[in-house]
Each structure stands twice: as structure tokens, then as C-alpha cells.
Amino acid sequence: MENEQKTISILGSTGSIGTQAIKVCEALGFRVRALAARSNVSLLEQQARRLRPALLSVSNEEAWRDLRVRLADTNVEILLGTEGMCEIAAGGENDLVLNSVVGMVGLRPTLAALEAGKDVALANKETLVAAGGLVTETARRHGARLIPVDSEHSAIFQCLCGNDSKDVRRLLLTASGGPFFGRRSEELEHVMVEDALRHPNWQMGAKITVDCATMMNKGLEFIEAMWLFGVAPEQIEILVHRESVVHSMVEYRDGAVMAQLGVPDMAIPIQYALTFPRRLSCEVGTLDLFEVGKLTFQRPDYETFRCLGAALEAAKRGGLSPCVVNAANEAAVALFLERKIGFMEIARAVCGALEEVPAGDYESLDEVLEAARRAQDYVNQKISQ
Ligand SMILES: NC(=O)C1=CN([C@@H]2O[C@H](COP(=O)(O)OP(=O)(O)OC[C@H]3O[C@@H](n4cnc5c(N)ncnc54)[C@H](OP(=O)(O)O)[C@@H]3O)[C@@H](O)[C@H]2O)C=CC1
Ligand SMILES: CC(=O)[C@@H](O)[C@H](O)COP(=O)(O)O
Ligand SMILES: [Mn+2]
């Protein structure tokens, strides 16, 4: 059957991934059961009128009241906060939950979906960075699947073709290098928010775009790959590939290397996550390799992009260390976007948190949330000094 109907709930529906996912669902004729966002009530209202979901959720009370007035003529139920997202995620009618909220706030809804035995299409990489052990163990226990949406992880997932990770020698994770690749740290002290938001190849939300500029995004993706594919840190190599055409590769133990290539358009990995294991036609441009001409690969500059080294070190230390660097980064990027700190302060905050915030092993979600709170407090205190 070309178009098997699925019922999807989308967390983060007003964002870059969320809006593209809605287009994909509409093109495929999938039913959208529920939508969640933080506070963009005007876009949520438009989405609700077009898609007629049963449930909506927003994260603050003012937005919740506003949306209830806006949609008073409909029978859509409007939920509130992280609890609202968890209720949506665990809902009985979901075939799949797409988690595309930004930040660690996505962790609890991911766990709620998995605990209810629901498959999760995961764009929200912070979920796996903060608590990869807890999340993968929850998925295993409840027989639910995590399907990657992040372009590199979708590429690896496609290159694995169902092969076991024991056959994998290395994952080759590609990085664009961001807008500042080739620059030295002294040249980056005074760059502006607008400069950091100029990604060379992708249009994305503000937080991930800044993460690409510091290369923290690749550090987060390194940890995301460890959990998704069950590999050790020594088995992942990061290659700067300015063209963003090879989305990542798998090197097998017999030396064969499989790569996934395509135009840099998130419609492809989003659709694959929603239709997996089937491939359906998708309205994206064709990759013209004559136009691309050549594909280049370089080593990352760990001296300038210190967030990358901090994330890799956290990955090696394990326990709560990845949670700490992630939470410190979230806090620092928010301050940078508010123009309260400079660009290079982000790396100082992340590296400082890695060394100074206690991060042992953990067993519970509460310990993860507490470590994140300590890291955020560390950054906020450091900035106010
Ligand atoms: N954009 C991309 O191409 C890619 C993104 N990703 C990952 O996907 C995730 C989303 O990225 P992106 O779409 O770019 O981000 P955006 O900033 O564009 O969108 C974020 C979404 O999350 C919602 N949101 C933010 N905070 C909360 C909250 N506290 N409660 C509920 N909803 C919240 C926003 O709602 P509102 O609009 O109301 O603020 C919005 O819908 C990130 O983890 C990112 O790293 C991964 C690969 C590629
Ligand atoms: C589209 C996507 O998946 C982003 O994570 C993108 O890969 C960011 O690019 P870089 O981190 O390689 O700059
Ligand atoms: Mn990515």
C-alpha cells in the first residue's frame, strides 16, 4: 500500500522541524492527533484550524488562556505545561510521537511516550544527551523504538540497513563547521548574534544554529550517536565536510564504508522517520553532483571550538557529565541570544561547568533534573559575577 495512514502527535509543532513535519504529514495524508508548543499561540491556532487535532498543549498559563479564547468555537482540548506534553505523548491513539521541541524540556515527554510503548521520532537531541542511558533503557523495557530525525543520525540509521552495531568499526559523523570555520578564537570574541545565526547550509531554529556556530551541535550529536547506535566514543570520528551533502557514514569491520547523500533538506529525514521502513516520494530538489563538483573532508579545530572538546570529554566521563554540559550550554546560549554574554562566553560556561559542577553516576530522572539545575545555576551565577 503506497499510503498507509498513520496518526502522529507533534511536540514543537511551531518550530523549524515541527512546521516541516506538518507539511510532510499533509503530503502523506497522515492524521495529526495533537500539537504542542511553548507560546506561539497564533501559529498554533492556524495549525489547529487546518489540521483539526484533538489536543493542543502550551507551556505557559498566559498562552493557555489565550488559546482557549481563540479556539472557543472548536472542541479541541487545550492542555498545559510539561504535563500536557506528557499526556499527548503517552496518548493511546498515537502511532508515533515526533519530539521536535528544543532543549531538555523534551526529556519527560520522550520518556512518557516510551513508557506507554509508543515509538518516538526524535529530533530533540538534548533528550539523549541529558539522559541517554535512562531513555534507551526505557525504550528497551517497553518495546518502543527511537527513530532518528537528526540528519546525521538518520543517515547512519539508513547506512546501517538493519545491520547490528557489532559489525560497525566506526561511525563517520560529518559537520559543516558552521559560519566560523577557519577562524581563530581571538577573531570570535566580538561576533554578533546575527553572525552566529548565519549557518552556511541549513535554515534552523536559533538555539541549534548557535550550537552549530560553536560546534557544540556536533558534540551533542556525538553523544546522541553513542546512545542511538550503541557505540563507544572511540568508534566515532568527526569530519568537517563544508558541503553538507554527505550526511554521515558507517565504516563496517570489513572496511566497507556506506554513506548517505542528499540535498540539505530536513524533509527527507523527517519523512523517513515517519514512514520507516518504507520510502515514499518526497518533494525535494534532486542532488546534482556535477554542480557540487567535489566533496571535501577536514579535521575539526578543537582549539577554537572548545565546546566540541568539552562534549567529547563529557561523553568519555559518562554519568551526569553529558547532562551538565548540555544544561550549561542551554543556559549560555539563551544568554547569548539575549545579548547578555559574548559568543566565546558560551564555551567558557560549558568548559567551566564540566570541571566544576559535580556529575557522578545516576539512576533516576530526578538526579538528571537536579544535575541540569546545578549546571544552569552555575552558568547564571558565573555570568552575574
Ligand atoms: N531545525 C533543524 O533543522 C534541526 C533541528 N534539530 C533538533 O530539533 C529540535 C528542534 O529544533 P528547531 O525546530 O530548529 O527549533 P525551533 O526553535 O525552531 O522550535 C522549537 C519548538 O519547540 C517549542 N518549545 C520550545 N520550548 C518549549 C517548551 N518549554 N515547552 C514546549 N515547547 C517548547 C517551540 O514553541 P514556540 O514556537 O511556541 O516557542 C517550537 O515549537 C532541537 O532539539 C534541535 O537540536 C535536529 C536536526 C535539525
Ligand atoms: C540539519 C541538521 O541535522 C543539523 O544538526 C545540521 O547537521 C547542523 O549542521 P552542523 O552542526 O554540521 O553545522
Ligand atoms: Mn544534525
Characteristic key phrases:
385 residues; alpha/beta; Rossmann fold; Rna Polymerase Sigma Factor, Chain: A; seven-stranded parallel β-sheet; four-stranded mixed β-sheet; 11 strands; binds NADPH dihydro-nicotinamide-adenine-dinucleotide phosphate; binds 1-deoxy-D-xylulose-5-phosphate; binds manganese (II) ion; manganese
Task: Please characterize this protein's 3D structure.
About 50% of the residues lie in helices and about 15% in strands. It is globular and about 55 Å long. It has three domains: about 5-150, 3-Layer(aba) Sandwich (Rossmann fold); about 150-265 and about 270-315, no CATH class; about 320-385, RNA polymerase sigma factor, region 2, helix turn helix motif (Rna Polymerase Sigma Factor, Chain: A, Orthogonal Bundle). The mean pLDDT is about 95. With about 375 residues, the chain is of the alpha/beta class. It contains 16 helices and eleven strands. Helix 13 packs antiparallel against helix 14 (about 320-335). The chain has helices spanning about 15-30, 40-50, 60-70, 80-90, 105-115, 125-140, 150-160, 195, 205-215, 215-230, 265-275, 290, 305-315, 320-335, 345-355, 365-385; strands at about 5-10, 30-35, 55-60, 75-80, 95-100, 120, 145-150, 170-175, 235-240, 245-250, 255-260. A seven-stranded parallel sheet has the order 4-3-2-1-5-6-7, sandwiched between helices. The chain has a four-stranded mixed sheet with strand order 9-8-10-11, with helices on one face. Bound molecules: NADPH dihydro-nicotinamide-adenine-dinucleotide phosphate, 1-deoxy-D-xylulose-5-phosphate and manganese (II) ion. Manganese (II) ion binds near residues 150, 151, 152 and 221.
